[in-house]
Amino acid sequence: MNGWATDPTETIAWLCKFRAHIVFSSRTIALWLITFATIDRWFLSNINVRRRHLSTLKNAQRSAIFITIFSFILYAQMFYCYEANLMNTPLKCYGKTKVCRHLTDLSLTFITVLCPLFVMIIFGLLTISNIRQSHRRIQILKTENIDHSVNKSSGLSNDNPQQKLKRKTDRSLLRMLFVQVIILTILTLPLSIQKLYSTISSENISPVEDAIDMFVYNMAILLYCISNGMPFYIYTLCGGTIFRKALSDFIQTMKRKIICKLNCYFFHINK
């Protein structure tokens, strides 16, 4: 709404507070859900059977519920801190005191951006390590099977198409996840750096420095907003045939439903 000439969140207090709470909470939820997806891929690629069994839909749902509740509680401060009709601030709907601004900036920098990015990178590297270990074990097992007997090796070759399809699916999902982590890091890190810098150097700044800081803030916000729209294109371009097939099936299903509804509608009209 910042692009409109009249933004109601800049003048209406309750709308300003509500929008700030939703925006900051949704940012935290979005990044942490991707982080949990990275952890889930690590569980799924782990050699340890017990850890692989932790990759379940139930655990994913629990994680989503937990981070949603945590984010809403974390940014409940917005209902007190944010106020409309402020002057000499980056936005008219902004933190009303320095303590509120510092608290919001530090929460956004560390909990919303840096912590999930750090966890994503760590578990991404661990997932790569798991995949390499799995490949080494597969090569060893193949060598042992070939040396053991020709019959057993030919019997195992019947499963090759399924194994290849599974490996292809895993590679597509991992490639999609890693590209998303890299792009999110590039697009969200500037905002956390700017917020951290503005928190540290908020005292005794000149008008020129204040103008530069506001320009950098607006650019960082723009990059952060771009990151919110990137997942669809990442899934389409880097997700292989899996996401494209799912998208195509969804479009075809919706098309059939629309055609069916239209046919029923025209049938009742003609009747």
Automatic annotation (TrEMBL):
Entry keyword annotation includes Ribonucleoprotein: no
GO molecular function, one term: G protein-coupled receptor activity
Localisation: Membrane
Tagged with keyword NADP: no
Coiled-coil annotated spans: none
One GO term describing the cellular component: plasma membrane
Keywords for the protein's UniProt record, in alphabetical order: G-protein coupled receptor, Membrane, Receptor, Transducer, Transmembrane, Transmembrane helix
Signal peptide start-end: none
Membrane topology: Multi-pass membrane protein
PROSITE patterns given in the database record: G_PROTEIN_RECEP_F1_2
Database matches in Pfam families: 7tm_1
Domain G-protein coupled receptors family 1 profile: 1-235
InterPro entries, alphabetized: GPCR_Rhodpsn, GPCR_Rhodpsn_7TM
Membrane spanning stretches: 20-43, 64-86, 106-128, 173-194, 214-235
SUPFAM superfamilies: Family A G protein-coupled receptor-like (SSF81321)
PANTHER family from the UniProt entry: G-PROTEIN COUPLED RECEPTOR, G-PROTEIN COUPLED RECEPTORS FAMILY 1 PROFILE DOMAIN-CONTAINING PROTEIN
Protein name: G-protein coupled receptors family 1 profile domain-containing protein
Biological source species: Adineta steineri
